[in-house]
From TrEMBL:
Keywords: Membrane, Transmembrane, Transmembrane helix. GO terms for cellular component: plasma membrane. It comes from Piaya cayana (Common squirrel cuckoo). GO terms for molecular function: D-glucose transmembrane transporter activity. It is a multi-pass membrane protein. This is GTR9 protein. It is found in: Membrane. InterPro entries: GLUT (IPR045263), MFS_dom (IPR020846), MFS_sugar_transport-like (IPR005828), MFS_trans_sf (IPR036259). Residues 1-165 form the Major facilitator superfamily (MFS) profile domain.
Length: 165
């Protein structure tokens, strides 16, 4: 039944939502973005247990020094960079193949509105990609994951309630 399948994915989102705040931040994120050396070592100990992590910490410091001069680019700057065109074309090909797979045709829609549904889905995907990639650097991945899981759990809960009613 659909309500069981929807509630299963909602339960997974709820479990992830409940446990995510108890996990430490990523050690590379703490060191490279926040420049918190003590927090990085503390996160390594929380994730991997007690031990000597100087080798891993030194590797992160080397990576930090290599990327120190690297400029962080926004979405428009990335799109202007010609070195990312092969990866970008692969992603676009994948998105186009999803649009042309016929999912809208199997949703019992009238044939006259299927192109509009496909176009609407493609526009929504494009907007979400642009918005998500823009706000990840501003808010951080942890907050966005937590918010996404919360929103997914709430939407699936509302959908489940509406199916039961």
């Amino acid at each position: 039944k659909w309500d069981v399948l929807l509630s299963f994915s909602g339960m997974v989102a709820l479990i992830q939502l409940l446990f995510l705040p108890f996990f430490p931040e990523s050690p590379p994120y703490l060191l490279m973005q926040k420049e918190d050396k003590a927090g990085c070592l503390k996160a390594m100990k929380e994730l991997w247990g007690e031990g000597d992590y100087h080798t891993e910490f030194d590797d992160l410091m080397k990576e930090k020094s290599v990327t120190k001069g690297t400029k962080i680019m926004n979405v428009l700057q990335v799109l202007k960079e010609s070195s990312v065109y092969p990866q970008l074309s692969t992603m676009l090909l994948l998105l186009l193949s999803l649009q042309l797979c016929g999912l809208s045709a199997t949703a019992n829609l009238q044939e006259s509105i299927i192109p509009y549904v496909s176009l609407g889905v493609a526009i929504c995907e494009l907007i979400s990609v642009i918005l998500c990639s823009s706000i990840i650097d501003r808010f951080g991945r942890r907050i966005l994951l937590w918010g996404g899981y919360l929103l997914m759990a709430l939407i699936l809960l509302l959908l489940e309630i509406s199916l039961l009613l």
